[in-house]
Amino acid sequence: MLIEGLMMATKEEETTIFWDMITCPVTSSSDASRVGPCIKLALKNLGYSGCITVTALGILTSIDTDILRAIYSSGVSLIHINTHHFGFAMELMSWRLKHRRRPSNFMLMSCNETLLEYNVSINKSEHNLIQKLPFGPPPQQVLDHLHSSNPPGLLKS
Predict the structure, then answer these.
(1) What InterPro entries has UniProt attached to this entry (predicted)?
(2) DSSP-assigned beta bridge partners for residue 107
């Protein structure tokens, strides 16, 4: 019971999501304006009730402007990085320094094994690691949701 209480308290804290747009891109055939609401709804359905911040990182000059506009309009912040590994690592370290004294939830959406190693250090700190994603393409259910107007069963309340 005590463990459940602690877990619920953690879910009430701020939640930060870093999305690697290089290894987990939105295709031009997907509705990029649904990305932010889909992520926030999934977290809400998992019981996360605190402020949710989603930040997409990538080499933005290589991504279609219409896709970037749609992602930004969905409530997702955009950060341009010049190089994948170093730029992403610097943003992760900066976030950890800013949040080192306050517990929060963290999720890294990436299919890059090297970047996912940062989850180990995040998990050992005062932050709650929400989920580790597999080293491969996103599940078909997520892809189907981005292409349809009906959310998948997993996201329904």
Answers:
(1) Marf1
(2) 17
* Per-residue pLDDT tens over the stretch 1-37: 233 433 333 788 888 899 999 888 987 778 999 989 9
Nearest to 105 by CA among 57, 142, 53, 156: 53
Q: Which two structure tokens, joined as six digits, stand for 150? A: 């009906």
Q: How far apart are CA 105 and CA 127, in angstroms?
A: 6
For residue range 76-117, list pLDDT tens digits in order: 999 999 877 788 888 888 887 787 667 788 888 888 777 777
Question: Per DSSP, what are the bridge partners of residue 15?
Answer: 52, 105
The structure's pTM equals 0.72
Q: Which residue has the tokens 């950890």?
A: 96
How far apart CA 127 and CA 39 sit, in angstroms, is 19
Burial of 102 (0-12, 13-18, 19+ CB in 10 A): exposed
Residues for the chain: how many in total?
Answer: 157
Q: Nearest 5°: phi and psi at 114?
A: -65, -45
Helices and strands in the chain, H and E counts: 7, 5
